[in-house]
Amino acid sequence: MPSLPPPPRAPLGHCVLDLLAHARDCLGESATATTPAERYVAAHLAALRTGAAVLAARTRPPSRRRSGPRDVWTVLTEVAPELGEWAAFFAAGADKRAAAEAGLARAVTAREADDLLRQAEAFLGAVTAVLGLPRQEALDPLVDLTAPLRAG
Fold first, then answer.
1. Is there a domain that residue 2 lies in?
2. Would you tell me how many other CB atoms lie within 10 Å of the CB of residue 30?
3. 141: nearest Cα among 113, 122, 128, 127
4. How far is CA 13 from CA 10, 17, 59, 97, 147, in A?
5. How many domains does the chain fold into?
6. Owning domain of residue 89
7. Cβ neighbours of residue 84 under 8 Å, at least 6 residues apart?
8. How far apart are CA 31 and CA 46, in angstroms?
9. Is residue 77 included in any domain, yes or no?
10. What is the pLDDT of residue 90?
11. What does the alpha-carbon distance between residue 100 and residue 106 come to, in Å, rounded to a whole number?
């Protein structure tokens, strides 16, 4: 007996698609940033927007008020357990992002920024697959991500 195709899923709202588009924009900003701190912050914001897109796709407003605000990474682990390792990874970098945003000297190394950019891009790819969207092309692999950092 042939297998039946999966049932059609509800189309994703504009909010989800907008968040993913903003995430891609942040990845582009990260790739062209001139300092490790700027690169790290933009990559982390890309991941944050990507996580928020999953929440927008899978959650509905609560019927009653919860005890207080919760961060994206905590809620993502509950709503999409298959993304729990990603959530833990990016949650661990939140303090470093805050330090980089605050301009603290040596908050982020070039390697940490480059690594986070690659991880944020991979996370976007994973979320795209989880949401059943067509795969987007990655950032141009021929772009030397460290060129702006060496020039400055």
1. no
2. 25
3. 122
4. 9, 7, 12, 29, 38
5. 1
6. 19-59+71-133
7. 76, 77
8. 11
9. yes
10. 97
11. 8
The answer to whether residue 90 sits within a structural domain is yes
Nearest CA-CA partner of 31 in 126, 124, 140, 125? 140
Greater model confidence, 134 or 50 = 50
Q: What is the pLDDT of residue 14?
A: 86
Task: Give dist(CA 86, CA 77) in Å, integer.
Answer: 9
Do the Cβ atoms of 135 and 125 come closer than 8 Å?
yes
pLDDT digits (tens, 9 = 90+) for 60-112: 766 555 666 788 999 999 999 999 999 999 999 999 999 999 988 688 999 99
Using a 10 angstrom Cβ sphere, with 0-12 exposed, 13-18 middle and 19 or more buried, the burial of residue 42 is: buried
In a domain, 11, yes or no: no
14-69 pLDDT, tens per residue? 899 999 999 999 999 999 999 999 999 999 999 999 999 999 998 776 655 566 67
